[in-house]
Design brief:
By secondary structure, this protein is mostly helical. It has one domain. It contains four helices and no strands. The radius of gyration is 17 Å and the shape is elongated. The chain starts with a helix and ends in a 7-residue tail after the last helix.
């Protein structure tokens, strides 16, 4: 499929793509807050969660502001890549937590 075909396919389903990205983003923010902030683990040095929350927040802000690029495929792919970077930091935080013994201190 060529670039024009990708752009037209994206234009046809733009609302579905952005809605799914927004739902995934909200779910990951809630998961991040629940795992590390509410359980008190953030006080023990889990700094990657801040990077994760930062990436998710930027995606959330970029998806709701009225930008002229919201209907461009490259803008969506940048947001999707940033979402994956935030997911990577979240997974690294979970792996670190499990390796440290998965203790919850309240």
């Amino acid at each position: 499929m060529n670039r024009a075909g990708l752009d037209t396919a994206f234009q046809k389903h733009i609302t579905v793509y952005w809605a799914n990205l927004s739902r995934l983003n909200n779910l990951l923010i809630v998961l991040n807050i629940t795992l590390f902030f509410l359980t008190g683990l953030i006080a023990r040095g889990y700094f990657y969660t801040f990077y994760s929350i930062g990436c998710f927040s930027v995606v959330a802000i970029l998806s709701i502001i009225p930008a002229p690029w919201i209907d461009r495929l490259w803008f969506y792919l940048v947001n999707l890549a940033l979402e994956f970077v935030g997911l990577y930091f979240l997974l690294i935080s979970i792996v670190h937590w499990v390796r440290m013994g998965a203790e919850i201190v309240m």
